[in-house]
Specification:
Ionic transporter y4hA; mainly alpha
Length: 366
């Protein structure tokens, strides 16, 4: 890449998040006309691309493992803010929004992003490889968190309906946060090597051919711009959400589709970052992004919305329906069979993407 092109990209990655944030501030708590909504949508897409760029800069400085963690946590924290804002503003019809969004995040990451990652890796290498130890631990964490937070409320009997009592909700929140913290400690400390890309002969030969990490000042600027871009993504998504909800109602689609759309928008940075890592034959990094985002989505979202629900005495429906639980169980089984060998082909990619397609279809036509 020439210095001129690199400079132009750098300018674009700086200007777009700032511009998206300015538009967000100007349109907050207002009803912009359709033309302005279109501009917000364009800036939202640009902010997503800028977020991916700055996440890669930060990852290059602190290491891919911490870079993946930073992106997942940043997106999830802002996702929580968006869920809480929409829940408070939306009234009774948003009681299931948190459940729908968190479940959508699990399906998008564990099937959509994982399937896309394996597909890209298999097309490039025929058989893509990764560490089954770290990836298996991440998948086990996702399944445990999803079961404790989203499946058990359907079967508890103390309170009528798929809801936890305040005591049960408190336990689920503490357990989710504790398991998330434990996973982060294992991933970044005691067993860090389980989550690093599998070294190949080509990696060893070219170990000194990579570009130098950015300076600390550059990385800090990118970190700030990453946060700005992510806030703009979620904020602009909230601006266009009334139009999305109106479109969902006009199309006679279930309310849960709103949660699907929110998850797809919020997870766009991870999706693009995972695809770019897979194109560089860093499939392990892509899987870290996908499963790490799913863990963060549950492990941070459930405690936050639980606290808001208990404090505000708002009902919170977390229990999944029968169709959703079947899809979650299928995702768990398929994920285990994909992870155990530490190798995957187009077959595994196709299975994950088909499960994801089935989820999208059934979300629109339950």
């Amino acid at each position: 890449m020439s210095a001129f092109v690199r400079e132009r990209l750098l300018r674009w990655a700086v200007v777009v998040p700032v511009l998206a944030m300015v538009v967000l501030l100007l349109t907050w708590h207002r009803k912009p006309p359709p033309l302005v909504l279109g501009a917000v949508g364009v800036l939202l897409a640009g902010a997503v691309l800028a977020a991916v760029h700055h996440a890669e800069v930060v990852a290059h400085r602190v290491g891919e493992l911490f870079g993946s963690l930073i992106l997942a946590v940043a997106v999830t924290i802002i996702e929580v803010g968006m869920i809480i804002a929409l829940t408070i503003d939306g009234g009774p019809k948003t009681q299931t929004l948190a459940r729908d969004t968190v479940f959508a995040a699990v399906m998008v990451t564990c099937n959509g992003i994982v399937g896309l990652t394996v597909l890209i890796g298999a097309l490039r290498q025929r058989v893509t490889t990764f560490n089954p130890e770290g990836t298996g631990a991440a998948l086990a964490t996702v399944v445990t968190l999803a079961t404790l937070s989203l499946v058990l409320p359907t079967f508890t009997t103390t309170r009528t309906g798929p809801q936890f009592t305040p005591a049960q909700l408190t336990f689920a929140a503490i357990a989710s946060l504790a398991l998330y913290v434990l996973f982060v400690l294992v991933q970044t400390g005691r067993h860090r090597d389980f989550f690093l890309p599998v070294a190949t002969e080509e990696d060893i030969v070219n170990v000194d051919e990579g570009s130098e990490p950015p300076k600390t000042g550059t990385a800090l600027v990118s970190l700030v711009l990453l946060v700005v871009a992510l806030i703009a993504v979620v904020g602009d998504a909230k601006i266009v959400s009334p139009a999305i909800e109106h479109g969902v109602e006009a199309a006679n689609l279930p309310q849960s589709v709103v949660g699907v759309i929110i998850a797809l928008l919020v997870l766009l940075p991870e999706t693009l970052a995972a695809a770019r890592a897979a194109r560089r034959d860093r499939v392990q990094v892509s899987l870290n992004l996908a499963l790490g985002s799913a863990i963060a989505s549950i492990g941070l979202t459930i405690p936050a919305i639980s606290a808001v629900s208990i404090w505000s005495h708002r009902p919170l429906v977390l229990g999944l329906g029968g169709t959703q639980m079947v899809l979650l169980a299928l995702t768990a089984v398929v994920g285990v069979l994909t992870v155990i060998p530490g190798r995957a082909t187009l077959m595994q990619a196709g299975i994950h993407l088909l499960v994801f397609a089935a989820y999208l279809f059934l979300a629109a036509s339950p």
